[in-house]
């Protein structure tokens, strides 16, 4: 029962996260493009029904995921079985910090948690040594977790070699996407002129 609910909640979260990651990739076309995509996308996920549902799913996912890690501690065998637990553990940590930071920024600091909110920590004068791996690993962990889950779902339909190759490819794509987003937000491809209210250190 808990596994079924974990998969159902994963489906809801994945729909959001895949669009959220697409939103961040749009930043390759510029800050305006990112903000305008987010403004349209918010019309869906910031509604009174979707946002509480999404946040409840994230909370449930963290709780159920940690339960699975604890229950199967020491019993996992093979690379993908371990990768699933490690990526899930990181996602639990990331989701708690990330959502708390976004809600704090929005409700306590009164900020528009847009492109600049995410880019602030990545600027050279801020804390890139923390935020670059923090965000890159989050995207890589999401794709790794998805790859391991799909590999298990399709275990009887394809050969182990085909499943391993596909899962490995999805994990590699996740890492490349994570690096692309982080380098974009860091200001590698264009200047990121942070408005004063977003600066974590002197701007
Ligand atoms: C490079 C990676 C990421 C960056 C820069 C980033 C940035 C952001 C920003 C700026 C927001 C605020 C959105 C808004 O104000 O409408 C947000 C919200 C959120 N992010 Fe991320 N995110 C990243 C990756 C992820 C990943 C991998 C996940 C999940 C596994 C995730 C889950 C969420 C959730 C659940 C919210 C809250 C949505 C809401 O209710 O407003 N994010 N993120």
Notes on the protein architecture:
This protein is 74% helix and 0% strand. The chain has helices spanning 2-25, 31-45, 50-71, 79-108, 115-120, 128-153, 160-186. It starts with a helix and ends in a 17-residue tail after the last helix. It binds protoporphyrin IX containing FE. Protoporphyrin IX containing FE is lined by residues 17, 20, 24, 38, 42, 45, 51, 54-55, 58, 91, 95, 98-99, 102, 113, 117-118, 135, 138-139, 142, 181, 185.
The oligomerization state is: single chain
How many strands appear in the DSSP assignment? 0
Whole-number mean pLDDT = 97
The computed structural class is: mainly alpha
Q: How many separate helices?
A: 7
Q: Characterize the largest beta sheet: strand count, sense, and whether it forms a barrel.
A: none
Please tell me what the overall shape is: globular
Radius of gyration: 18 Å
Short description:
The chain has 203 residues and is mainly α.
Keywords:
mainly alpha, 203 residues, binds protoporphyrin IX containing FE, globular, single chain, 7 helices
Secondary-structure map:
Blueprint: H1 2-25, H2 31-45, H3 50-71, H4 79-108, H5 115-120, H6 128-153, H7 160-186
Helix pairs in contact: 1-2, 1-3, 3-4, 4-6, 6-7
Protoporphyrin IX containing FE (HEM) is lined by residues 17, 20, 24, 38, 42, 45, 51, 54-55, 58, 91, 95, 98-99, 102, 113, 117-118, 135, 138-139, 142, 181, 185.
